Amino acid sequence: MTRAVRVEAQAPGIARTLSLSADAARRWSTSAGDLPALSGCIDVDVSFSPSTNLLPIRRLGLAVGESEDVIAAWILLPDLQVKPLPQRYTRIGERRYRYQSRGGAFSVELDVDEAGLVLDYPPFWKRAKPG
Asked: What residues does 81 pair with on adjacent strands?
């Protein structure tokens, strides 16, 4: 379970920071107060980065053929708006997962490395080879 996250968004003339934290009961808050809409969210999903897919992939430990639904605190950029996002992870191969969100309206197959880090998130992102 994610306990805290800090996201900074910077662009010419814009600098925003969001700090979220969750207690053991999965109640989320910022320095401005509680965020009851996020109650029960287990993980965070930063909209621009597939790195946050690592969190549920590692935590769930799905066997090939298994699926599980989660709700993530979805951080949208550049305004750092946060809202709950229902998601489903299905392990479809040794290192391949189907990720679905918005009730299946968005679906993509993710290839991951041995640690669960996303290698390929078509068509948006592909990890560069080292060196």
From this structure: 76
In angstroms, the first-to-last Cα distance of the chain is 33
pLDDT, block means (10 residues), the chain with 131 residues: 89 89 93 92 90 93 97 91 95 97 89 91 80 56
Q: Is 3 left (phi over 0), alpha (psi -120 to 50) or beta?
A: alpha
Residue 33 burial (C-beta neighbours within 10 Å; 0-12, 13-18, 19+): exposed
If phi over 0 gives left and psi between -120 and 50 gives alpha, with beta otherwise, what is residue 26?
left
d(CA 90, CA 99): 7
